[in-house]
Design brief:
The chain is α+β, with helices and mostly antiparallel strands and 147 residues long. The chain has helices at 30-47, 87-95, 125-134, and strands at residues 2-8, 11-18, 21-27, 56-58, 64-66, 77-80, 83-86, 104-107, 120-123. The two termini are 26 Å apart. The structure holds zinc ion (2 copies).
Length: 147
């Protein structure tokens, strides 16, 4: 696996190679190109982790609850390729969803152990805080700052 970013003709070009497969994509900003490379990297790592599905439990509410390690703040986390990653981010990567740098992942279902991509929203920090203020009956604190 190798990857490379370069800038040519006013466009950012990301090249990503895994196995015999070579993917080239162009983007208008460096941030987009990096988010895409991160996605490709996480997706590749997730595919080498067959135990992932064994660690999910589907609830009547449709949440996919993480059964592996959970952080003190209630988020599923695992080791993938020697680095700690949040389980919900891995599931988003498997679906092909890129998370721009600095963006938050919000659990619309309020179940922090949930990794169902349909229950997750990618929000800018300012939107995320606003979303939690709307939900005043629950916690008004941003519960997943930066995860
Ligand atoms: Zn859920
Ligand atoms: Zn949230």
């Amino acid at each position: 696996m190798s990857q490379r970013l370069d800038f040519r003709g006013k466009r950012w070009r990301a090249r990503y190679q895994v196995g015999g497969e070579r993917i080239v994509r162009t983007f208008s900003t460096e941030a987009e190109a990096r988010a895409w490379v991160d996605l490709a990297e996480l997706r590749r790592a997730a595919m080498t982790f067959p135990a992932l599905l064994d660690r999910l439990n589907v609830t009547p509410a449709g949440c996919w609850e993480w059964q592996g390690h959970v952080t003190a703040r209630g988020y599923g986390r695992l080791m993938l390729d020697g680095r700690k990653v949040y389980a919900h981010r891995v599931l988003l990567a498997l679906r092909g969803t890129a998370i721009p740098a600095g963006y938050h992942v919000h659990h619309a279902c309020r179940n922090t152990r949930c990794v169902n991509p349909d229950h997750l929203e990618i929000l800018a920090p300012v939107e995320h805080r606003a979303r939690h203020r709307e939900n005043k009956n629950g916690s008004s604190v941003v519960h997943e700052d930066g995860v």
